[in-house]
Every structure is written in structure tokens, then in C-alpha cells.
């Protein structure tokens, strides 16, 4: 019996390995990877994006200084210029801020917060948009009309205004201390709620096309539940444009978070993001400490530009008319 179970496990593992290897082979032989490797700009954008992700999420282990450890901070090291400037310290490559924190390390930890907010908010917005778009496109009628009218109303407001309204509403309801504890969660929810419409409208349009095709009609005839039809048959065929929107929305979410943090209504000062660092450095920009705002600002611009370039390439690569 034990030998039989072991044989079955080995067979299942071998089958899984063959499926994974076959999928990888088809990907590397496909049009998307061919388009990727023929575009040096896209390769550079991908490398830069991955570098930001690695530096951000490995910051607690690879950052030169732990900016959250108050014991290691020394106010005597405040306002040190970059290492190539007169008075620079080799221990602080890009200089220090007003609290003596290493600017390079704060950028790594700040990018960690910005990417976390952007990534989680895009995932949540994508889930909301996909569910509502599938329901509206498949069932139609009153359901479709209600969801799309809500989407139209929301599109009449700028996304940043919606986020500010949600943040202000939660601040009025929650005690100050409690709001600061869950500020990151509120910010993710607010940005996601402001950006679900693009996903919903795109998925709805694709679903209207797919639901009239023969494979969906056949699934209805054999009596499959609508939820199974949507998940098993319709959803895989509407994911290409969703992935493109998700990539571009990541850059928008990062910029939205940076804007809110710059205005002082984003993440709390105890968890500084790139926007918070730019706001803090802006207070000292005209007194000569330019590095405190220039370097975080440059990091934000490079990150958003790299993600946008990847989104533009993915849009073209997944468009069959451009192949």
C-alpha cells in the first residue's frame, strides 16, 4: 500500500512538472516573450522595476542603516550632503535628512511603503472591478444599468478627490490614534475604491462579447451555474486587457499615494513613503539641503516611468492587431 501511494505521488509530481515545463516552454516560444526580448527599452524598464522591488522588500536586511531604529540616529549627523559634496560622509552615500537618517536607506524603506500601498490597492481594485464587470456584462438588465450608472457617477470625480473624501470621512469617524494605526489600510481601500471603474468597464465590454459565443452557450445548455461559467470560461478570456490596466494602475496608485503623503493625508510619519520624504525635504529645499527632496523625487519618477513603460509594452504585446 505504501509503495502504491509513493508511486501515485511520484506520478502526480511528474505530471505537475511536465505541465509547468510545457507552460514555460510555450511562454518563452510565444509572441509576448519575443516582443519583450526585442525591445531594449522594455528590458531596461523591467530590470529597473525589479530592482526597486528587491531594494524595497529587502530593505530591512540590506539597507545600510535602519531608519526605524531611533537608537542608531544621531542628530549630529543631520543635513550631511552626499558623499561627493564637501563635508560628505562615506557612511551616507546620498547624505542625511534633518533627523540624521541616511537618505538612501529612507528611499529604500519609503519605496517599500509606496509599493505595498500601490500593489495591494491595485489587487483590490482589480478584484472589485472584475466581479462587478462580469456580473454587469453577463446578467445585463437592471443589474448592468445600476452598476454602470454608479461607475459613470464616480468617473465624474477625480480619483484624488474620492480618496480625500474617504480619508476625511474615516478621520471624522475614528479616534486620531486609531486612524494612524490603520492609516495604511484606509489608504489602500480608498485608492482601490477610486480605481475599480476602469477594470469594471473593460471586463463588462469583453464579457458582452464572450457571453454570446458558442462555448458559453454550450455551458448554459448543459446546466452549469452562472458563477462557474463566469469563472471557468469567461474570466480567462477577458484577463488580457485587465493585466494591462493593472500594470498602468500600479503607477497611478503609487503617484496617488505619493500625492496624498505629500499633502500630509497619506501614510503616517512613522511609516514614511516616497511622498512623505519629498514633503519633508521640500521644507529644506531652499535652504540648500536639495538632496533631501531631489533623490526621493528622482526615485519616484524613475519607478513610475519604468512601470508605465512596461504597461505600454504589455498593451501592445497582448494586442493581436499589432502582432
From TrEMBL:
UniProt cross-references to CDD domains, sorted A to Z: TM_PBP2
Q: Does the keyword Transmembrane apply?
A: yes
Chief location category = membrane
- One GO cellular component term: plasma membrane
Keywords linked to the UniProt accession: Cell membrane, Membrane, Transmembrane, Transmembrane helix, Transport
Q: Which domain of life is it from?
A: Bacteria
Q: Where are the transmembrane segments?
A: 41-63, 117-140, 146-170, 182-203, 242-265, 290-314
Q: How does it sit in the membrane?
A: Multi-pass membrane protein
Pfam families in alphabetical order: BPD_transp_1, OppC_N
Q: Where is the ABC transmembrane type-1 domain?
A: 111-311
Asked whether the keyword Secreted is assigned, the reply is: no
Q: Where in the cell is it found?
A: Cell membrane
Gene Ontology terms: biological process: transmembrane transport
The text of the family note is: Belongs to the binding-protein-dependent transport system permease family.
Q: What is this protein called?
A: Transport system permease
Amino acid at each position: 500500500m505504501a509503495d502504491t501511494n509513493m508511486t501515485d505521488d511520484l506520478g502526480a509530481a511528474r505530471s505537475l512538472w511536465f505541465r509547468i515545463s510545457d507552460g514555460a516552454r510555450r511562454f518563452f516560444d510565444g509572441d509576448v516573450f519575443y516582443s519583450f526580448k526585442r525591445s531594449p527599452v522594455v528590458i531596461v524598464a523591467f530590470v529597473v522595476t525589479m530592482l526597486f522591488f528587491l531594494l524595497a522588500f529587502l530593505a530591512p536586511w540590506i539597507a545600510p542603516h535602519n531608519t526605524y531604529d531611533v537608537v542608531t540616529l544621531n542628530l549630529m549627523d543631520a543635513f550631511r550632503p552626499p558623499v561627493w559634496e564637501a563635508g560628505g560622509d562615506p557612511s551616507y552615500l546620498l547624505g542625511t535628512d534633518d533627523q540624521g537618517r541616511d537618505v538612501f536607506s529612507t528611499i529604500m524603506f519609503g519605496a517599500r511603503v509606496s509599493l505595498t500601498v500601490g500593489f495591494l490597492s491595485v489587487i483590490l481594485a482589480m478584484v472589485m472591478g472584475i466581479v462587478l464587470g462580469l456580473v454587469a456584462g453577463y446578467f445585463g438588465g437592471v443589474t448592468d444599468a445600476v452598476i454602470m450608472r454608479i461607475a459613470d457617477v464616480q468617473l465624474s470625480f477625480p480619483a484624488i478627490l474620492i480618496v480625500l473624501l474617504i480619508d476625511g470621512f474615516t478621520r471624522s469617524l475614528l479616534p486620531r490614534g486609531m486612524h494612524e494605526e490603520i492609516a495604511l489600510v484606509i489608504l489602500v481601500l480608498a485608492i482601490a475604491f477610486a480605481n475599480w471603474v476602469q477594470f469594471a468597464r473593460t471586463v463588462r465590454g469583453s464579457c458582452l462579447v464572450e457571453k454570446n459565443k458558442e462555448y458559453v452557450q454550450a455551458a448554459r445548455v448543459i446546466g452549469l451555474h452562472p458563477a462557474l461559467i463566469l469563472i471557468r470560461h469567461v474570466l480567462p478570456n477577458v484577463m488580457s486587457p485587465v493585466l494591462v490596466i493593472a500594470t498602468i494602475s500600479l503607477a497611478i496608485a503609487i503617484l496617488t499615494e505619493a500625492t496624498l503623503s505629500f499633502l500630509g493625508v497619506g501614510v503616517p510619519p512613522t511609516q514614511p513613503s516616497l511622498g512623505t520624504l519629498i514633503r519633508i525635504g521640500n521644507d529644506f529645499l531652499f535652504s540648500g539641503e536639495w538632496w533631501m527632496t531631489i533623490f526621493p523625487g528622482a526615485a519616484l519618477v524613475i519607478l513610475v516611468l519604468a512601470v508605465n513603460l512596461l504597461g505600454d509594452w504589455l498593451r501592445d504585446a497582448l494586442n493581436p492587431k499589432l502582432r
